[in-house]
Amino acid sequence: MLRADLLAATLAASLVLGCESTPNAGASGGSASPSVGALSSDPESPTGGVVTDAEGFRIAHDDWARLGYRWDWSSKPFISPRGTLNDFTPLGNLLVAQESGSNVSVLESRSGRLLWSSQLGSRFTKFVGSARDNDIILTSTTSELFELGATSGNLVAKSRFKFLVDTAPVLVGNIAVYGSGSGKLLAHNRDTGVIAWAYALSGPIETPPVLVGDEIVAALSRGGDVIFLNPFTGASVGRAKIAGGATSAPVADTDRLYVASLDQSVYAFDALGGALAWRVRTEYPITAQPALHDGALYVTLQAHGLTAFDTIDGSLLWRNDDIRGEVIGIRDGELLVADGTRLALVDPEQGDVIRRHDFPGAASITTDTFVDGAVYVVGRSGVIVRFVPRS
Known about the structure:
The protein has 391 residues and is mainly beta. It has a domain at 1-92 and 99-125 and 365-391. The chain contains 2 helices and 37 strands. It has a 4-stranded antiparallel sheet with strand order 6-37-36-35. A 4-stranded antiparallel sheet has the order 7-8-9-10, with no helix packed on it.
């Protein structure tokens, strides 16, 4: 394991590219001055506002202010020479980043300070995702589960899977449920480090299992199987069948699963029993990621743009061909929609675009919590930039 204190000498000067008020700590936990000089203020932008460069990602401060945010900090996880940042996951007050050299880093969300970095494999190791259980960070490869101290990086447990997995897990108590390309769901018992149960579906499972309510795990296969299971026993509590799978992850509320499918339909299924609650047919396969909020299901349709459905009966609430992308959050009651390098605020009642801005240099844009959370932009260089709601 690559311990954080071995990185201190090379990382301390470059961990944080611009903390606003909190001095950054080096990898060993000692104090280090923020590298404010790494950020250079450009002359006024074409719109008259100041633009700051964070390793290739240009922060147009006025544009972010119009969206209701302000720049908080810019930071960079450990990235090996010639490496790239492959995955970034906000997990509460911590941020997990995984790069192509198999280094996993954890940063503090409040300050951007790098807490630790560990090398968990080789450059050929395939990671499938990270999750968190209180003070434990779970990082999974296709063959192994690493459980690490959230703030220390110390290895708490390591176990091998019964067979290869291909999706991020859903956690329920001591059980982590994964999907696999072989079409099997794997329930891994974290206490014993061995398999709890497995369940076979038709076709590969390419999207992560999801939790419906508190105690039902749902999964979808490329062959169109929809299954609802007790996560502790593997017993089926409901099942359904659709004509095709999905490339976007299903979403769920307390008692229903919603699927945007490649068979050109949007579905809602009751978890107990698996009965079809409603179905809306569309003109083309759906590949966009759906989102749920306050009784509405939002998904971009190829022929109609961003579309809102009533979760009760699937009736159309509105659609807007002028806006596409994924609803990643709510900002002051308005939908925050990300489409590549573009962010837009959209009226949730009518679907009208309130304002939108392009942010060239963004590789991904996400939020840490759905309602009025922080926005994280990952730049193409691997820099992570945090924006927080303006008061």
